[in-house]
């Protein structure tokens, strides 16, 4: 399905500064709680997915916007450190950089607030300026952390230049404009996002398959639902394939979905099949839940078994 085997990916999406507090349990309304540890790190679903793909060896172009503030410069430097092309990492003095206060429980579960800030001041013209990169890419990767009209614009550009698209519809929304489905080749929600989008309860692989068929009926070519510890499910009009995950010790699941999507895009951009790419992405994401933080939990190539990295 890849447009080419260039290993090049363009990500149009958000960057955030993650402010992570490790807490004994989630808060109740009006409550103040002592946390045990605080970690600040680079995050945002778009940036995370770009970093994961770049760590695996993809040529990644990131299209995003930071604030001209204490976080903006570091965010751009962080992406450059991973070899990401930051030509389209723009800045504005009109809004603060995106931030994400996060709480993580001892079981590794999280709650996340995002304030997209500068990310939403990206413009259609600035996305157009990345048209040639999108055209050269094997895949365009988007999420829903920037203004929806900007995501739509990026998907439209990809359609115009014939580049296949991966949409990770996160964070969850109840409804999406109908045209977004037709602009998406691989629609990649988690269970919660699938439930919210379809109104269908997901508590098993068969129930996920039913919801995937509902999403297919809306116009996407392939649905790939991530199922946490149960791996993922690929459904298109011909097949339904459940890919299980190995049992692993969970320390922090924050960013695991981004690790999966970034790894998926990386392997697809090398020309691997969707099933093989998803199988490898499940393994990469399983490694990421064993460490704290978001990008800081993403494995380096040296920490990934050779058989996963091989084509
Ligand atoms: O998916 C995890 C990410 O969600 C975090 O990095 C946070 O920034 C939010 O975007």
Write the layout of secondary structure elements.
Blueprint: E1 8-12, E2 16-22, E3 37-43, H1 45-56, E4 59-67, H2 72-81, E5 89-92, E6 99-104, E7 110-112, H3 124-128, H4 131-136, E8 139-142, H5 148-161, E9 165-167, H6 178-182, E10 186-187, H7 191-198, H8 205-217, E11 222-226, E12 232-235, E13 240-243, H9 256-269, H10 274-288, H11 306-309
Parallel strand pairs: 1-4, 1-8, 2-6, 4-5, 8-9, 9-10, 10-11
Antiparallel strand pairs: 2-3, 6-7, 11-12, 12-13
Helix pairs in contact: 1-9, 7-8, 9-10
The protein binds alpha-D-ribofuranose.
Describe the structure.
The chain is 34% helix and 20% strand. The chain is of the alpha/beta class. The chain has one domain (8-15, 44-97, 118-301): UDP-N-acetylmuramoyl-L-alanine:D-glutamate ligase (3-Layer(aba) Sandwich). It has a nine-stranded mixed sheet with strand order 5-4-1-8-9-10-11-12-13, sandwiched between helices. A four-stranded mixed sheet has the order 3-2-6-7. The two termini are 16 Å apart. The model has no long low-confidence stretch (mean pLDDT 96). The protein binds alpha-D-ribofuranose (RIB). Residues 16, 18, 43-45, 48, 100, 112, 114, 145, 254-255, 257-258, 294 line the site of alpha-D-ribofuranose.
């Amino acid at each position: 399905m890849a447009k080419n085997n260039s290993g090049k990916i363009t990500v149009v999406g958000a960057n955030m500064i993650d402010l992570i507090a490790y807490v004994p349990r989630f808060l109740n309304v009006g409550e103040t709680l002592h946390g045990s540890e605080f970690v600040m790190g680079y995050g945002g679903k778009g940036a995370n997915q770009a970093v994961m793909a770049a760590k695996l060896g993809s040529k990644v172009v990131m299209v995003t916007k930071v604030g001209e503030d204490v976080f903006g410069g570091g965010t751009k430097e962080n992406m450059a450190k991973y070899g990401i092309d930051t030509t389209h990492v723009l800045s504005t003095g009109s809004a603060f950089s995106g931030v994400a206060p996060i709480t993580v429980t001892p079981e590794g579960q999280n709650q996340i607030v995002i304030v997209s800030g500068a990310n939403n001041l990206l413009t259609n013209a600035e996305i157009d300026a990345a048209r040639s990169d999108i055209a050269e890419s094997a895949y365009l990767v988007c999420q829903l952390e920037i203004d929806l009209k900007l995501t739509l614009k990026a998907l439209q550009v990809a359609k115009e230049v014939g580049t296949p698209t991966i949409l990770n519809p996160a964070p969850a929304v109840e409804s999406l404009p109908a045209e977004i489905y037709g602009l998406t080749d691989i629609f990649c929600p988690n269970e919660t996002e699938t439930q919210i989008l379809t109104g269908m309860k997901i508590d098993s692989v068969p129930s996920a398959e039913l919801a995937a068929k509902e999403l297919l009926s809306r116009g996407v070519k392939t649905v790939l639902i991530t199922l946490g510890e149960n791996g993922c499910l690929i459904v298109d009009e011909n097949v339904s394939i459940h890919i299980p995950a190995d049992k692993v010790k969970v320390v922090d699941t924050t960013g695991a979905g981004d690790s999966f999507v970034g790894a998926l895009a990386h392997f697809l951009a090398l020309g691997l099949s969707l099933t093989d790419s998803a199988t490898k992405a499940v393994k990469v994401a399983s490694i990421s839940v064993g460490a704290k933080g978001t990008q800081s939990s993403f494995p380096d190539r040296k920490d990934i078994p050779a058989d996963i990295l091989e084509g």
